[in-house]
Amino acid sequence: MRKSNLKFLALRLCSLFILSLFPMVSVAAIVTVDKDMIRYRVDTQKMQAEVYGLSNSSASVHNLVLPDFLEYNGKQVPVTSICNNAFYGKPLTGSLTIGNQIKTIGYRAFYQCTGLTGSLTIGDSVTSIGEYAFFECSGFSGSLTIGNSLKKIEKYTFCDCHGFTGPLVIGKSVQSIGEFAFADCWNMTGSLIIPNSVETIDRCAFMDCNDLTGELVIPASVTSIGDDCFDSCNKISSLTISSSNTQINYFAFTRTGIQTVTCLGTTPPPCIYQENKDYIFSKEVYSKPLYVPKESINLYRTATEWKKFENISQLPIKATGIEIDKHDLSLFVGNEVTLKATLTPEDTTDKIEWSVNDGSQNVISVDQNGRVKALEVGSAVITISAGSVSTTCYVTVMPIVVTSISLNRQTIDAEIGAEYQLVASVLPADATNKDVEWATSDDKVATVNNTGLVNILDKGLCIITATTTDGSNLSATCRIDVSSAVNGINNDSNSKESVVTDNGTIRILNKGSETIVKIYSMQGALIKETIQDVIKGFPSGLYIVTAGTNCYKIKL
């Protein structure tokens, strides 16, 4: 009995000694807190909370908001995580807002939450998302944005979230994208931008994302592209692979819309086949252009996979600058001039294109050699572009103004009732506006219409003036003198010949057989010359008739 007590005492002392060698370790206390239909687990030692799920597993929550902080015992406790399976298959509807303190989103946290809608933003606080976290959340209908702290997108994380209709934005810290991570997100739109931080893209990661468009650039940081990775991304139009060190697995780019492939590496990127899986691209892509460094063309022509391309050419050399000899140009209507454009670098493969801005094509024209023609008065802008660079030339088209004006007659000794046609001549012959305005100084003596036809009304003097309308303000005049004489010619009562008229017929009485008869207009123009003494066929009006040396004024 005594021996036994001694043994017990020795064991107790040994235990106390061992405990004295180690500090006391307290066990964390986990407390459950329900608030706003959400259940949280609070670590009272670390004073941080985890989203556990719904407080009522059968409840439906609309517009779920996971807060930054949870109030516990009068203190604000940060909500830092969402546990595994937290909302697995739960009837969540509307939008999802993830708090800015959350660092981890657990495995299958929102698995098959098909009622969630709108855009989804994973904030910069999130450093970890578990596999299948948003698998089959097909109701999301906006964009997907992944913050800049996440380094790995696990497999199936957003697989079959085919409701997303906006662009996908991947954070700048992501290093790996797991298999099927975004597979079947077939309504995502816009160009896919892969950050320079990404090193691996696993198999089928973007398979069936068939609304992604434009150019796909694989940055130099990527060392591996898994099989079927971009299969059925059939609206991607071009592909650029930046590094020779990117290993590409079979079927990586099958059933795409790729029209051009560009490889920047001087050695062909390695391509990995398996039995009966001996191609990277769909067969129709091999007839599209493959652009590679000039010095590497022969290497690509003999390399696995790349030798299948029928058209391997040197990389396009993009223009970095463009200059023209004139940025402002003034022309007269009808003038032509040729502009000269220079590209930098000189060996660029980009071509110069010339165009007139919309709405100005009636003012000027320009051909693809830079030849500009002025068509009508106004202003226009020519755009000269090559690849992604461009410049402009502003063009002003001015009218060709009249420098002189003259009339066909400067004076007229007129008769009442007569008409005279004045003609204005303007120089230069190619003046833009040759129109003139006609005016009379005394409309009781003579009038003039808009074609220069003068009508004599009464005796007196007046001036007919023609004035240019193009702004040059030049004019020319004709003096009209109306008296009883007919161009200074009087009827001679002593002449043996006489002239009579009857119903439009002119008769010369007592005319010698060889006497010549001439009939003139009141403007002095010879109309007819004859030896007949009966003359017909003249319209009504005033005329001058000469018979030998005698002159007569007649009226028909």
Summarize the structure.
The protein contains 2 helices and 48 strands. The longest helix is centred in the first third of the chain and has 19 residues. Strands 1, 2, 3, 5, 6, 8 and 10 form a 7-stranded mixed β-sheet that branches. It has a 6-stranded parallel β-sheet with strand order 12-14-15-17-19-21, with no helix packed on it.
Layout of secondary structure:
Elements: H1 2-20, E1 30-35, E2 38-43, E3 48-54, E4 61-66, E5 69-72, E6 75-82, E7 92-98, E8 104-105, E9 120-122, E10 128-129, E11 144-146, E12 152-153, E13 168-169, E14 176-177, E15 200-201, E16 214-218, E17 224-225, E18 236-241, E19 247-249, E20 260-263, E21 271-272, E22 289-292, H2 297-302, E23 311-314, E24 321-324, E25 328-332, E26 336-338, E27 341-344, E28 353-356, E29 364-366, E30 371-374, E31 378-386, E32 389-398, E33 404-407, E34 411-414, E35 419-421, E36 424-427, E37 436-440, E38 446-448, E39 453-456, E40 460-468, E41 475-482, E42 498-502, E43 505-509, E44 517-520, E45 526-530, E46 534-535, E47 542-547, E48 550-555
